[in-house]
């Protein structure tokens, strides 16, 4: 029987009209035993209320953007003000310059930026620009890194040493898939071999400098430095996908984060941004060195456009969000709460004999149900999906909301409190007790 009858009812109705009942497959509960996902009715700060009236502590943060918590008053005011002034002009507006300046000030590798509507678009366009700059067509990416759903980057999430051209989706032509080479993250040797073999055809090497898509994974010392050196030596461009990582760990990007190994020795040619920089409204951005960005229309031959791009509401929300994040102590507080939560989960799992690997980077961490460190996708794949599903459901029924994916991170926000951590640790203790008894 269902504890969430209204969610069940809405899901059944949604199934008749929306494919799979969800507008993004990541929201489906398919990977955690199926059935109706929870339909949320409202959200404030770190909490959701669902359509059945249950309350939840939110660690999903909408897959990253909601870093200041839901309905933050400063961002809400900015959106209301922007809405009053008209939500879409199709002309340039002044605040676009202000957001561009803020991004440039925080991320010095950006000489010029361009706003788009999603991380997918931002990434997709960086590849086009890299191809325009180099006259080459191939892309090297890393296994398990997700870069949005455009054809080229939805290829070969396999975990072999260096795989070529296996689409992760139907509908991607083999001709496109064969333009992508995938190597394991943190594996300099595999990258060197791929560049030796295909180097003069490679337009770019794309990487999440801190991985967010098969767990939170730091690059090992030397990896990014070697990546940049080898890529440049091959005459290709370095693209950083910072859609998740920018403004997640500090007021800046992973590339400017002092705890990132090699951060001082590396500078990408192009960076893709999204999520947090829109304060919860749709946005993406890409940018890089002036000479590279000058390939983009109307200056150069690489075409990219957008009816909604740089729209006043998204830009206003993004600016307001960055203003909140700029306040002193914001990231330290999220880190303190995340540390207490991650350490508490780790200790409790250990006490119950449940293998759990936690990778925490400041206010975000991943939980893999496996007994060894996770530094690449192959290791992440050892995560016990059934155990995660059980944990996910036991937490959900106690009012703790995670992403329904065994790889997705827990995100702390500026709105979480010590009391949220207390409740979450109590719920996890209960979940582990039940799971241990079931072993
Ligand atoms: N790049 C990375 C690293 C991402 O995590 C995501 C989304 N999770 C994207 C790109 C795509 O962004 P969007 O969903 O806004 O298209």
Report on this model:
The protein is of the alpha/beta class and 439 residues long. It has 2 domains: 5-71 and 328-438, Alpha-Beta Complex (Aspartate Aminotransferase, domain 1); 73-325, Aspartate Aminotransferase, domain 2 (3-Layer(aba) Sandwich). It has 13 helices and 15 strands. It has helices spanning 5-17, 73-84, 94-106, 119-134, 174-177, 188-198, 223-233, 290-293, 312-325, 330-351, 377-380, 385-396, 418-438, and strands at residues 40-44, 47-50, 55-58, 112-116, 138-142, 163-164, 180-183, 202-207, 237-241, 270-274, 284-288, 357-361, 364-368, 400-401, 410-411. It has an 8-stranded mixed sheet with strand order 4-11-10-9-8-5-7-6, sandwiched between helices. The structure holds 4'-deoxy-4'-aminopyridoxal-5'-phosphate. The site of 4'-deoxy-4'-aminopyridoxal-5'-phosphate has 15 residues, from α4. This is Glutamate-1-semialdehyde 2,1-aminomutase. InterPro entries: 4pyrrol_synth_GluAld_NH2Trfase, Aminotrans_3, PyrdxlP-dep_Trfase, PyrdxlP-dep_Trfase_major, PyrdxlP-dep_Trfase_small. Pathway: Porphyrin-containing compound metabolism; protoporphyrin-IX biosynthesis; 5-aminolevulinate from L-glutamyl-tRNA(Glu): step 2/2.
Q: N- to C-terminal separation?
A: 24 Å
Radius of gyration: 21 Å
Tally of DSSP helical segments: 13
Q: Give the cofactors and ligands.
A: 4'-deoxy-4'-aminopyridoxal-5'-phosphate
**CATH topology heading of the largest domain:** Aspartate Aminotransferase, domain 2
Q: Which geometry do the CA atoms define? A: globular
Query: What is the CATH architecture annotation of the largest domain?
Result: 3-Layer(aba) Sandwich
Family: Belongs to the class-III pyridoxal-phosphate-dependent aminotransferase family. HemL subfamily.
EC number: 5.4.3.8
Subunit structure: Homodimer.
InterPro entries: 4pyrrol_synth_GluAld_NH2Trfase, Aminotrans_3, PyrdxlP-dep_Trfase, PyrdxlP-dep_Trfase_major, PyrdxlP-dep_Trfase_small
